[in-house]
Design goal:
Length: 202
């Protein structure tokens, strides 16, 4: 299922980002992953390689995963937007909206115990209106789904004081995963930008 979503992402032309991409970046990780990490959008290196978090932010993400005694091989990593915005600008609301169906389907296919949101754009997809400075490092349960907000790893590259915060938050992830229940039937949160579809947790 994740593979067929990835194949669709690679062919996607739902928004103008498709025209500037070298490779789409659907996401990667085992279908058995209990933890899904959701970043913002591919950057230069990700666009070249078609893989998430392979640049400088990705190196720090690997270090962060180490703080949680996890490796890339155990987690699923994706982004809210699957193609690189020009010049690494923030994704536009319409780009996030165009791409949102893919993330919804990835969450439904993977049924992770915990979704780690990386940065404010990813946080806004799951917990709209919540300031990251207030909610980071605190898991939020919605039935069987646990959302664990964190700052984006790239934020620590620009603001070194956030490095410690990110490491401390990530070190709490194992206990968050241990407390989380396997997701059996919880509805996947629908983004605000989409029309309401069935029962939404948000
Ligand atoms: N930043 C992101 O948010 N995602 C990536 O894949 C790389 C950098």
């Amino acid at each position: 299922m994740l593979d067929s979503i990835a194949a669709e992402v690679s062919r996607c032309t739902l928004c103008p980002l498709a025209h500037g991409r070298v490779k789409a970046v659907p996401g990667e990780g085992p279908a058995t992953a209990r933890v899904m990490l959701v970043g913002e959008a591919p950057g230069h290196h990700e666009n070249q390689q078609g893989r998430p978090f392979v640049g400088a932010a990705g190196q720090f993400l690997d270090e962060l995963l180490g703080a949680a005694k996890l490796s890339r091989a155990e987690v699923y990593i994706t982004n809210i937007v699957k193609c690189r915005p020009p010049g690494n600008r923030d994704p536009l609301p319409e780009e996030i909206a165009a791409c949102s169906g893919f993330l919804t389907r990835q969450v439904e296919a993977l049924r992770p115990n915990v979704i780690v949101t990386l940065g404010r754009h990813s946080l806004g997809r799951f917990l709209p209106g919540e300031p990251i400075s207030r909610v980071h490092g605190r898991p939020r349960r919605f039935d069987d789904l646990t959302v664990f907000p964190m700052y984006h790893p790239a934020a620590a590259l620009h603001q070194p004081s956030l490095r410690r915060t990110l490491l401390d938050d990530m070190a709490r992830l194992p206990s968050v995963v241990a407390d989380a229940q396997p997701v059996a039937s919880a509805p996947v949160p629908a983004p605000q930008v989409e029309p309401p579809r069935q029962l939404s947790l948000f």
